[in-house]
Specification:
It is a single chain. The chain contains three helices and six strands, in the order βββααβββα. It has about 120 residues and is of the alpha+beta class. A hairpin with a 2-residue loop joins β1 and β2. α1 packs across α3.
Length: about 120
């Protein structure tokens, strides 16, 4: 995704095994979709990395020095392209889990409202 007109994904690392069965889809992805992806996205550096005996994965390295790794074990070429597109479209920020669904700067003095309150 572009933040102020600058794409945040800097490098996409494609790790795969040359003989493993779980890497069959990523090898087909590298033959069909990867050359077009390299030509179309000139701002993106795409690196292939041969790692024998390991499951395939995609690693996105962002400008804010964060990384995201997606395991693409037994995925088809179209699914891997979808995951690569999702990595490209994300900002690379860390996921922050909220403590509650209700977020406010000034919590109520009376407490949180719920439907289980009984008015007598």
């Amino acid at each position: 995704m572009a933040l102020r007109g600058v794409w945040q994904l800097q490098k996409l690392v494609v790790s795969y095994c040359d003989w493993g069965g779980s890497s069959r889809g990523i090898r087909a992805f590298m033959e069909t979709h990867l050359p077009a992806l390299k030509e179309k996205k000139l701002h993106l550096e795409v690196v292939t990395q041969l790692v024998r005996g390991q499951h395939p994965n995609l690693k996105g390295i962002y400008k804010n020095h964060n990384e995201r790794v997606v395991c693409v074990r037994n995925f088809g070429p179209e699914d891997i392209l979808l995951q690569a597109t999702r990595l490209r479209n994300s900002l690379g920020r860390k996921v922050v889990k909220l403590r509650s669904r209700h977020v406010t700067k000034r919590p109520s003095v009376q407490g949180t409202w719920s439907t289980e309150l009984k008015m007598s």
